[in-house]
């Protein structure tokens, strides 16, 4: 299956355009479902109907609908995909990007090539962690390199961020990351089985500072209940934020979820419910800058009971 990319879409994929225009597009260059994620046209002569199962984004609610059906935790930011990111997208995309699908994902199939020489072969022995909103992927790549036997399924809707993480995956030769360039809320709803995850990472979710925008915050009781249900007993949910009012909201929401227990309250009562920074989470450029400016950072680690 292949896709003819019209020039308007090629422009959106930045430097990828030149390389794609100068060579034939084969069946792995840009998977049709990724093309759908990038709002490219359906491939001609599509026979398996896969692309048609991916909902099209229109970018706005129909005129006769007062409010969109679901409030999203993100807005699609403009951003330039660099030549290096586009190259990584073309080269690694077919192996690393997973299309959104409205049915449960088979992780055994998805990670079948990811076993590390010398690492455990048994998939059950390789923990599975979901990351929501990896931004430019700095922390994601660092943690994946540190924990090579853990499998990471990472969701992000910011297209240059997807390109940036793919580039890091190529540069660091990482084999334990898969990316879903789609709204994590829909991924949780449709692609993840109950009690299937060993961990969830949500680092610096958009704080939506203004009160009228607080409803867009990702971490709210209904989503936390769904995440908790997808964790295995003993699995963890790790959030970090540098916005104190959001930290307080997260602490309250996680504390009220009956499927979760606060790991830190017993071990670090002096932190009033917050956790020390776990060793695997790096200090990113963004966070270091915040620390220099005197901003606080709050980690929260809860466990599935
Ligand atoms: C403030 S950034 C933080 C990025 C990164 N975790 C870091 O620490 O630098 C939050 C990211 O979450 C992404 N995001 C927000 N809601 C999302 C959702 N529902 N699904 C996937 N990504 C989402 C945004 O696109 C954005 O890149």
Give descriptors for this structure.
2 domains; 7 strands; globular; disordered N terminus; 305 residues; seven-stranded mixed sheet; Rossmann fold; binds S-adenosylmethionine; alpha/beta; single chain; 34% helix
Written description of the protein model:
The protein is an alpha/beta fold. Helix content is 34%, strand content 14%. Strands 3-2-1-4-5-7-6 form a seven-stranded mixed sheet, with helices on both faces. Helix 7 (159-172) links the parallel strand 2 (151-155) and strand 3 (177-180). Helix 4 (83-96) packs across helix 7 and helix 6 (138-146) runs parallel beside helix 7 (159-172). The radius of gyration is 20 Å and the shape is globular. Bound molecules: S-adenosylmethionine. S-adenosylmethionine (SAM) is lined by residues 73-74, 132-135, 139, 155-158, 161, 183-185, 203-206, 218, 284, 286. S-adenosylmethionine binds next to helix 8.
Question: What is the compact description of this entry?
Answer:
With 305 residues, the protein is an alpha/beta fold. Helices cover 34% and strands 14% of the residues.
Q: Can you tell me the CATH superfamily of the largest domain?
A: Vaccinia Virus protein VP39
**CATH hierarchy, class of the largest domain:** Alpha Beta
Q: What percent strand? A: 5-15%
Name the poorly predicted regions.
1-36, 38-65
- What is the residue-mean pLDDT, rounded to a whole number? 81
* Number of helices in the DSSP assignment: 12
Named CATH topology of the largest domain: Rossmann fold
Known CATH architecture of the largest domain: 3-Layer(aba) Sandwich
Task: Tell me the overall shape.
Answer: globular
Structural class of the secondary structure composition? alpha/beta
Helicity range: 25-40%
Ions and ligands: S-adenosylmethionine
| Tally of strands | 7
* Span between termini: 45 Å
State Rg.
20 Å
Strand order of the largest sheet: 3-2-1-4-5-7-6
Largest sheet: 7 strands, mixed
């Amino acid at each position: 299956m292949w896709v003819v990319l019209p020039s308007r879409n090629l422009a959106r994929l930045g430097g990828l355009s030149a390389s794609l225009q100068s060579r034939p597009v084969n069946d792995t260059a840009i998977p049709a479902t990724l093309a759908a994620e990038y709002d490219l046209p359906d491939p001609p002569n599509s026979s398996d109907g896969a692309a048609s199962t991916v909902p099209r984004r229109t970018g706005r609610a129909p005129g006769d609908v007062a409010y969109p059906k679901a409030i999203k935790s993100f807005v699609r930011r403009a951003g330039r995909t660099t030549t290096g990111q586009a190259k990584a997208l073309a080269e690694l995309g077919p192996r690393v990007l997973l299309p959104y699908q409205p049915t449960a994902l088979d992780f055994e199939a998805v990670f079948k090539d990811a076993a590390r020489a010398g690492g455990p072969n048994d998939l059950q022995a390789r923990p599975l962690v979901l990351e929501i909103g990896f931004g430019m992927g700095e922390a994601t790549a660092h943690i994946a390199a540190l924990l090579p036997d853990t499998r990471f399924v990472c969701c992000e809707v910011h297209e240059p961020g997807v390109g940036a993480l793919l580039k890091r995956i190529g540069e660091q030769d990482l084999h334990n990351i898969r990316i879903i360039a789609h709204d994590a809320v829909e991924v949780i709803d449709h692609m993840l089985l109950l009690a299937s995850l060993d961990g969830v990472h949500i680092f610096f979710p958009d704080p939506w500072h203004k009160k009228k925008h607080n409803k867009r915050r990702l971490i709210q009781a209904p989503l936390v209940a769904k995440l908790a249900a997808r964790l295995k007993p003993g699995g963890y949910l790790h959030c970090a934020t540098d916005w104190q009012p959001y930290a307080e909201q997260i602490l309250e929401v996680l504390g009220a979820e009956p499927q979760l227990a606060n790991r830190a309250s017993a071990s670090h009562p002096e932190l009033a419910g917050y956790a020390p920074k776990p060793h695997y989470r790096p200090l990113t450029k963004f966070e270091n800058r915040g620390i220099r400016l005197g901003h606080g950072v709050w980690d929260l680690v809860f466990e599935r009971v």
